[in-house]
UniProtKB/TrEMBL annotation:
PANTHER family: ACETYL-COENZYME A SYNTHETASE, ACETYL-COENZYME A SYNTHETASE 1. One of its GO terms (biological process) is acetyl-CoA biosynthetic process. This is acetate--CoA ligase. It comes from Pontixanthobacter luteolus. GO terms for molecular function: acetate-CoA ligase activity; ATP binding. Residues 463-541 form the AMP-binding enzyme C-terminal domain. Pfam families: AMP-binding, AMP-binding_C.
Length: 566
């Protein structure tokens, strides 16, 4: 995109649809656009995935290789008796089997749902139960610890596919590698339609159970277009998205966007390590890099000397995702790499990037950028059942989008009222507060709800509070996010105790360990405070907002509904 204003005037979603091939029947399938069409156009020899194992091993898969392995997985699902609509859940990290399973499921006309591999048993159980999982793909140890104890309570879960060697499987599981070795790599792709369900991504709310956001095959139109426009993907690029596969980012921009654009996708199994990352950027000659603010802050903390020891001149475009990127990080990257990080904004519900800083325009450090061509965004003020667009520059309000973009979620699974509540007055209300400056750049202000964003993970307070209350000592619980230099926010818990229990450092430590064992380290509180009482409204709702204001020394605001002590 050479000129943003011209692109906004000239391009619309129909233009972006024309960038894809579609099925001969006129249908649309994400996996066909990501894999098969490249082979059909004679690009099968081009490298699709370059995988780096955490122990130093490497594997390379061409688009033809990827077609073969995804066909094989789809055929295996069919041989097991699973047809279109099968729901395949994954607990895998960044390993080749994840990509074969995701794309193979889509070829079979199924629905793919990635879960964060670091989740504890309860988050896995709740999501698989809500999503009515038919098939699970996992490592043996994750299955044994997180799923096996309650599998009998899930009648929908018919098959568990274990990725390790045959001796790692059990009587109630299937060793995937051995099974695939016996499966022919021939499969006739299911002729899905644009509105057929393809992806299920769970996101947490401030109250209630996790929400399963439904995405359809037409989402690929936005994934492809945003990869090209917002991430500046071009033929010949070596692209590295560091997102975990359990995030929506790990699917939208860790699989679909790069593959539909025909580039080489770098996948590193290992977790963050500053030296390894710089070595990888140099050795693999990465040209486009998409990472998270948490990682950027850790790189900043590691110092410039490590980076300066490496030739990073191949980097052409740097982008950030997961949470607002602080201005200091943009200035730092400009000095170190000679290029700024380009922040962008989107959500699980939007399915793809909606607002971004583009290669063709100046970056304002701290801004999320401007809307994608064909996306209508506004700052609005709620007024009963309607909304009013705020035209005044720098006026804070709700960040809203005009519905109708291809990657827009089509619902929350089995929760029609919850879905309908996201829309008002002809707009989708994102739940984020923002403002727009005089140049049309959008700026993040804060979240309109209490969802905590820690190291790119959206954490619902209710889920953490529920785990805390399960401890016999805990009477009530509330959690908030507090600022953290590395993670953006970390979770802090507050609890009151039942009679007969006394506050102590040992109990505090025990509570932290209890939640960590249930939910996993990514979700559990880092800090805990045992208090005598929690602020609540007269109706009994605990006021997390007030807890946060007191924690941070901020104005308490309107406390007219606060329950008064007896």
């Amino acid at each position: 995109m050479a000129d943003y204003d011209r692109a906004c005037a000239d391009l619309n979603w129909d233009d972006f649809r024309d960038w894809l091939d579609y099925l001969p029947s006129g249908g649309l399938n994400i996996a066909f656009e990501a894999v098969d069409r490249h082979v059909a156009h004679g690009r099968g020899d081009h490298e699709a995935i370059r995988w780096l194992g955490k122990s130093g091993e490497t594997r390379s898969y061409s688009y033809a290789d990827l077609k073969r392995e995804t066909d094989r997985f789809a055929r295996f699902l069919s041989d097991l008796g699973h047809g279109p609509g099968v729901r395949v859940f994954s607990l895998l990290g960044r390993v080749p089997e994840l990509y074969f399973a995701a794309l193979g499921t889509l070829k079979a006309g199924g629905v793919f749902c990635p879960l964060f591999s670091a989740f504890g048993p309860e988050p896995v159980r709740s999501r698989m139960t809500i999503g009515k999982a038919d098939v699970l793909v996992a490592r043996a140890r994750d299955y044994a610890k997180k799923v096996a104890p309650w599998r009998a309570q899930m009648p929908d879960l018919k098959h568990v596919l274990i990725t390790e060697s045959p001796d790692e499987s059990g009587a109630d599981t299937i060793a995937l590698a051995a099974a695939l070795a016996r499966t022919p790599a021939q499969f006739e792709l299911v002729e899905t339609r644009a509105e057929d369900m393809a992806l299920l991504h769970f996101t947490s709310g401030t109250t209630g159970k996790p929400k399963g956001a439904i995405h359809v095959h037409e989402a690929v139109v936005a994934h492809n277009a945003t990869g090209r426009i917002a991430l500046d993907l071009r033929p010949g690029d070596i692209y590295w998205c560091t997102a975990d596969p359990g995030w929506v980012t790990g699917t939208s921009y860790g699989i679909i966007a790069p593959l539909t654009n025909g580039v080489t996708m770098l996948v590193d199994e290992a977790e963050f390590d500053a030296r390894r990352w710089y070595e990888t950027l140099e050795r693999e000659r990465v040209t486009v890099w998409y990472t998270a603010p948490t990682a950027i802050r850790l790189l900043m903390k590691s110092g410039a000397e490590i980076a300066k020891a490496h030739d990073l001149s191949r980097l052409r475009f740097l982008a950030s995702v997961g949470e607002p990127l602080n201005p200091e990080a943009v200035v730092w990257s400009q000095k170190l790499f000679g290029r700024p990080f380009h922040d962008n904004w989107w959500q699980t519900e939007t399915g793809g990037i909606m607002i971004a800083n583009y290669a063709s325009m100046d970056v304002k450090p701290g801004s999320m950028g401007k809307p994608l061509p064909a996306v209508e965004a506004a700052i609005v003020e709620e007024n009963g059942d309607s909304v009013r667009v705020l035209d005044t520059a720098n006026a804070p309000g709700h960040l809203a989008l005009r519905p109708g973009w291809p990657s827009m979620f089509r619902g929350y699974l089995d929760e029609e009222k919850r879905y309908a509540a996201c829309f008002k007055g002809g707009w989708y209300l994102s739940g984020d507060l923002a403002m727009r400056d005089e140049d049309g750049y959008f700026w993040f202000v804060g979240r309109a709800d209490d969802v905590i964003k820690s190291a790119g993970h959206l954490i619902g307070p209710f889920e953490v509070e529920s785990a805390l209350i399960e401890h016999p000592a805990v009477a009530e619980a509330a959690v908030i996010g507090i600022p953290d230099e590395r993670a953006g926010e970390i979770v802090k818990g507050y609890v009151t105790l039942h009679q007969g229990f006394q506050s102590s450092p040992q109990l505090n430590k025990e509570l932290l360990g209890h939640v960590r064992s249930r939910l996993g380290a990514a979700i559990a509180p880092r800090l805990m405070e045992i208090v005598d009482d929690l602020p609540r409204t007269r109706s009994g709702k605990i006021m997390r907002r007030l807890l946060k204001a007191r924690e941070l020394g901020l104005p308490e605001g309107d406390i007219s509904t606060l329950e008064k002590p007896a």
